[in-house]
Amino acid sequence: MPIETLQDKVVISLTPPALATPTTTGAVPATCTIYLHGATVTSWTVNGREMLFLSSKAILDGSKPIRGGIPLVFPQFGTYPGAPLPQHGFARTSTWRVLRTDVSPDETKATVVFVLTSSDLSLAARTAWPTPFRLEYTVTVDAVHHTLATDLAATNLATTTEFDMPFTWLLHTYLRVDAIEKTEIRGLEGHLYVNKAIADRDPTTQAFPALPIKEETDRVYQNVVPAAESHLHVLSGGRPAVEIVRTHGETAFRDVVVWNPWVDKAKAMADFGDDEYRHMVCVEVGDVVVPNAVSVAPGETRRAGQVLRALL
Ligand code: BG6
């Protein structure tokens, strides 16, 4: 069975057919695990290779956000004085429901759709963020194209024009890397960023095509408008390892966060191994820069997503 729904997670397991047909040429085994807690993708393998980072100390029992994979940030990125919600909002700590699943006839592609609405929230979250909403999260694994697509759709369920739904959102993707000192990110050259890792937070322009990670990194790049020639790439040892394509045209995610806690912050996190910063980098696409972040009118839906492609 390519999709198995268990009590706390959904497991996708695609095994390409023994006899390749023209439509399945290039197919390799692909798997994916998604916890209902936060609808957090915790694993994505392509041809036996794990593409996502999940901390060995990650807590998976629903008592904390999961440290690794793809936690969903909604409706609040980070935190600030007077913020209505805890850091990164409630999507990553809520229990989502499976709405439907689908497998292509040749079993090389599988989709799981999750849903979260206001009525699924804890009383504390609903009180802090009273706008009625519906969030759909679609996860698709494709064994032919070696991709993992994660799409969000946020609907404002308010019935009067008084209730626009402003929010920030982001796919907090933890990518597994062989060695951080051999890792660089491309696609951000010429874009303005704020470095949250230092006290001086004046916006700076990234001058170079490659961003290596050599220290604590917490950069928020603004308005990196997606274009075919500017897809984001994560390289390992000079070789492209993962491509990140933002989807949905005009409503595509515009901002990109690059995060690595490095030595001291790694030690300070209880759910993260001291040396694990060497094997991960977060490249997070979203709309997080206020006041340009998203606002959805009553009855309307905003869609955005990413496709991660493993470059084997
Ligand atoms: C990043 C933020 O998106 O998430 C960082 O830019 C933050 O500032 C990081 O430290 C991890 O956040 P958390 O809440 O999962 O520890």
TrEMBL record:
It is an enzyme of class 5 (isomerase). It comes from the Eukaryota. GO terms for cellular component: cytoplasm. Keywords: Isomerase. The active site is at H172, E284. InterPro entries: Aldose_1/G6P_1-epimerase (IPR008183), G6P_1-epimerase (IPR025532), Gal_mutarotase_sf_dom (IPR011013), GH-type_carb-bd (IPR014718). Belongs to the glucose-6-phosphate 1-epimerase family. This is Glucose-6-phosphate 1-epimerase.
